[in-house]
Amino acid sequence: MLEKQGKKTEAANNYREALAIQRASRDNRREFAYSLVKFVRFLREQGLLAEAEALSRETISLFDELIQNGATDIYLRQEQAFNHRVLGELLASA
User: Is the pTM value of this prediction over 0.70?
Assistant: First the structure.
């Protein structure tokens, strides 16, 4: 909502707060990974590439962890591959 209203800084801060809560709870790792994916996209759009890169790496690690722990959802592997591509694009644009 804030994004669409042009309040990008406020939206970024809200994203960060929400992610901090999810990170601390360690409850639903899959949901946290998808939240990170959305925030990485937002950061890329804002040109905050260093932060996007760091969170992209964290996202890949989360998907790796989920897959190694036996998650069989095919979409996890697709997201993992997609995030490897995103990280590659971020590194290429740096």
Answer: yes
